[in-house]
Structure formats: C-alpha cells, structure tokens
Amino acid sequence: MVIHYKCPNCGGDMSYDAELGKLHCESCGREDSIEDFPTENIQSVFSEEDGKEYHCKNCGAVIMTDADTTATTCSFCGAGVVLGDRLSGKMAPLRIIPFKISREQAIKAFKSWAGNGRLTPKGFMTADRIKKVTGIYVPFWLYDLNSRVQANALCTKVRTYTRGDYIYTETRYYDVYRDINLDYIKLPVDASEKMNDELMDRLEPYNYGDLKEFKTPYLAGYIAEKYNYDEEELLPRAKSKIENYIHSYISSTIAGYSTVSYNSKNIDTSKKSAYYTLLPVWMVYYDYDNSEHTFAMNGQTGKVVGTPPISYSRVAAWFAGIAGSIFIILRIIALVMGGGLW
Ligand SMILES: [Zn+2]
Ligand SMILES: [Zn+2]
C-alpha cells in the first residue's frame, strides 16, 4: 500500500515541513496540521503484487526501495510516499520525534561545520562536495529498565597518629552492604542494521519532551526504515549501555573510605517496557580525497557528528600561529619584569 498526501488546493504532493511542524505543499504553499488533514486527500494505492512492487500514483514508476524502507520519495517525480503496509501490525511505530531541523538548516550547518574548521583544507567548501542530503527516520527501541543491585564490599578507614616516640596506624574495617533500586526511562537503542551503532550513540541525547504519538504523515518527504532487531534481541545492548553507570553509581554510594574492595556485586536488570520509536537524523554524504565521508546531525537538536577532512599544511600553519603568539607573550612578560634589553 502506497500512501500519498495530496494538497487539497492544487493536488500537489505535500511533505512534512520541519520548521512549520505541518504538512506543506511546495506548489501552492498550503499548510495543514497533521491532526486536521482531510482524510479524503490521503490517497492509498494497494499493490496488486502482494506488496512486492510499489508504484507511484503520480507517474506510475516503480518505487525503488529495499525491504526495510517504510517511507521514501519517488525517484522519477520526487513525490513523498509512505509504504503503509510496512508500518502496520508489529511493525507499527508507537512514537516519533518529528524533524525540527529543515534540510536548508542542515546544509547550512554542514557548511559552517566544514568551513569554519581552520583545519579544513583550503577550497574544501568552495567546490560543491555535497553528494546527497537525506532526512532519515531511524528506528529505535526506547527501553524502560529496572536494575536491582546488591553490592558487598570490605572497606577500610586508615588513621595515622603520633604519640610520644611512636607513630600509630589504626585501620578500621567495615563490612558494607548496599541494596539499590535503579530505574531508567527511555533508554534509546538503534534498531536498524544499516545505521552505525556508534554514530547513532553519539547523536544522543534526544529531548523526549517532543515525543509524539506516531502518525504516518510525519514521514511524508523523508526516508524511513523499519527495525531489523526486535526489543528482545537488543535488550543485551541496552543493558550494556547502562553498565558503566551502574558501577559508578554503586561507588558513589560508598564514599569516605580509604580502601574499598568488592566481595560481590549482583546486578539484575530487567525490562519494564520498550517502545518502537522513530528518531530524526540528517545524513550528508560528501566527497573528499576520492572517498566518501558522512556527516550526521541530530534532526531534533542539531547536534553534529562527523570527522572533517584535515589538511596537514593547515595544521602546521596553525601551530606556527600559536607559537608566534607565545613568543609575543613571553616578550611582554620580560619587559614588565624589567628586562627590556632584548
Ligand atoms: Zn498545493
Ligand atoms: Zn512518481
């Protein structure tokens, strides 16, 4: 099933506008809120061939997608289409954070990130290196977890004092026991095979105050993917994400001792719930030095992740600049101290 959102004025294809937070028609400028969009303008086309092939309603072209795509644009006429049958049943997302950063804002941010980096090779931004800019809704599981922790440690407090000719060292031993209950809400784990886990982790945090109930029009004009791993398969990864935090939390409750040595730590983490959620990411693919690089941006907060190309001649020039200013500062200090002979 292919879903088009048709403009009630002119019949053009509408897409979700991140800055307006509404459906927007490129042709005539009409805006509609998602809640009030007239249902008769939602055109659903059922595929005859068991959903194996999707056709664009406008131009009839086959919509090129792989099996994980749930929303895309027609590569012939550019219409935003949502593949409705891939978003139903257990594949139906529960929540979404809509894009807040528009395509133009993402491109601008990319240019300033690459351009004002003084370590970027000269001319990097003068050429048009951007190959592709894609707004993607990445599937995540948001976990609510609970950890029950029992920790037992042998701790000491050491005191040294002098009495007469003798130095005394007094060591007191403490048997410390902690029983801790920790709750986590909305811990995100990327559920897409295609997306790099580390890159996705670095795009955090998202502001979950903007979480909305999922509605398909949010996807109009964007790419969306469905999850490859379910909530049970990713639970170990969710647990490993909080592991360091648990250990540092335990340590923070056992403070004020000279030494702490743990006899046992028993951590039992369980899942309270998991919500299938789509989070917005801008991906910019660019060419440099004959290879392709990626720049990713949190589509809600604008946080940027990526490595700019580094020019070694510029690094050298930059260090020369720093060395020069240190020389001047030393010279001024020397003058103030009454040197002045050099
Ligand atoms: Zn229109
Ligand atoms: Zn088309």
Features:
342 residues, alpha+beta, 12-stranded mixed sheet, 3-stranded antiparallel sheet, 4 helices, 15 strands, elongated, disordered C terminus, binds zinc ion
Describe the structure.
The chain has four helices and 15 strands. Mean pLDDT is 85; it is low at 338-342. The strands form two sheets. Strands 1, 5, 6, 7, 8, 9, 10, 11, 12, 13, 14 and 15 form a twelve-stranded mixed sheet that branches. With 342 residues, the protein is an alpha+beta fold. The site of one zinc ion has 8 residues, from loops.
A few lines on this structure:
The protein is 18% helix and 39% strand.
Please state roughly what percent of the residues sit in beta strands, choosing from under 5%, 5-15%, 15-25%, 25-35%, 35-45% or over 45%.
35-45%
Based on secondary structure, the structural category is: alpha+beta
Describe the largest sheet.
Answer: 12 strands, mixed
Chain-averaged pLDDT: 85
What gyration radius follows from the Cα positions, in whole Å?
Answer: 29 Å
**Helix content, binned percent:** 10-25%
Q: Ends: how far apart?
A: 82 Å
Ligands (ions, cofactors included): zinc ion
Uncertain stretches of 5 or more adjacent residues: 338-342
- Spell out the helices and strands N to C: EEEEEEEEHEEHEEHEEEH
Helix run count: 4
Q: Specify the overall morphology.
A: elongated
How many beta-strand segments?
15
